[in-house]
Amino acid sequence: MDIAFSKLRIAVFLDGCYWHGCPVHATHPRANAEWWRSKLDRNIARDRETTDHLTAAGWTVLRFWEHESADDVAHLIETTVRSRRSASGAS
Predict the structure, then answer these.
(1) Is 33 helix (H, G, I), strand (E, B) or coil?
(2) Considering the domain 3-88, what is its CATH architecture?
(3) Per-residue pLDDT at 90
(4) I want to staple 20 with a disulfide (CB 3.0 to 4.6 A). Which of 15, 40, 61, 90 is the partner?
């Protein structure tokens, strides 16, 4: 988890395109290709498992790709935090 709003149970992940398998920007190494494919597939599977685990535990999970607009990402995080605060009565 890259950023956690623990009291509000919001987890934010900023995923790198290469390491996390971005459908737009991911590349596939030619050297030692089988090893890298296995490694990257495990990363993607772990991301899904982490999201499922946190969601089952009542967390809101936000995942963003490194290429996404920082302004858009910040806006969505802020909107989510404000929404959870007003829903929980937290300040």
Answers:
(1) helix
(2) 3-Layer(aba) Sandwich (3.40)
(3) 65
(4) 15
